[in-house]
Amino acid sequence: MTTRTLKIALLQQSFSNNKQENLLNCITNIRNAASQGARIILLPELHCTQYFCQTENVDNFDLAEPIPGPTSDALSALAAELKIVIVSSLFERRSAGLYHNTVAVLDTDGSLAGIYRKMHIPDDPGYHEKFYFTPGDLGFHPIETSLARLGVMICWDQWFPEAARLMTLSGADLLLYPTAIGWDANDDKSEKQRQLDAWQTIQRGHAIANGIPVVSCNRFGYEASPAVDNTGIDFWGSSFIAGPQGELLAEAPCDEGTLLIADLDLKHSEQVRRVWPYLRDRRIDAYQDITLRFRDHD
């Protein structure tokens, strides 16, 4: 079987409260990745700012911008110049009082190939996303680019196997997850390790169950919370690229900025699926109850 190799890069970064500075750092790192041959470049979740969802503050809605808008326009021009695909996670202002956590995918000609709006919205201590983000309304559909069909989802989406499956069934060539996840300082070392292991394991499981590469790009570094009773979040980095059998192709450390690059052979997914034909053997005639919230029983 012939190969179809695609070089992909993940930009694991930390972020300040200076939006313009963050964008310029992203642009510098994108140029660096492109100079090393990367054709698709994935940035972390909400890469324009620090993670503002640690508290509920209406002033933070001023951070949102339309798509197309200033950030997507700047990255669009860069994508066209470097002839690459950029996957950018933005705080979208759709209308007054209507905001989303949205990925914009800029194609190699600078065009907006498509957007994905985060479907699963968490509401946990330090992660008050339901206050800011309206749940996505575009479903789980890959974004077609000149290089590949990208199954883009965002952070909390990465814990749901149904989402990964639906992207796969719609023809995604790979799954991409921009992410902002980290530890609570009050958790002990063993609990932190369990959380990190679970985070990587569930996503590698999506690769295995669907015979498809998975790439996950997290931010790193400590970000203090504005709330006096909150210790902030230590984002755990650990971005990674996994092949269609869940094998780790590249992995970043937990505590430093990293340009993570790997070659993906997209044709290899077909070979894997011939050996492990999960899609063939799915019992779609027996899965009706998957749409229930819960099946009550005695």
The residue fraction in helices comes out at 25-40%
Number of discrete helical segments: 7
Q: Taking all residues together, what is the mean pLDDT?
A: 96
Computed Rg:
19 Å
Regions with pLDDT < 50 over 5+ consecutive residues?
Answer: none
Strand order of the largest sheet: 5-4-3-2-1-17
Q: In percent, how much strand structure appears in the residues?
A: 25-35%
The count of DSSP E runs of length 2 or more, i.e. the number of strands, is 17
Q: Look up the CATH topology.
A: Nitrilase/N-carbamoyl-D-aminoacid amidohydrolase
Principal-axis shape equals globular
Q: Termini distance?
A: 52 Å
Structural class: alpha+beta
The biggest beta sheet is recorded as: 6 strands, mixed
Q: From the 3D coordinates, which CATH architecture would you assign?
A: 4-Layer Sandwich
Instruction: Give the count of structural domains.
Output: 1
> Considering the protein shown, what is the CATH homologous superfamily?
Carbon-nitrogen hydrolase
* Series of H and E elements: EHEHEEEEEHEEHEEHEEEEEEHH
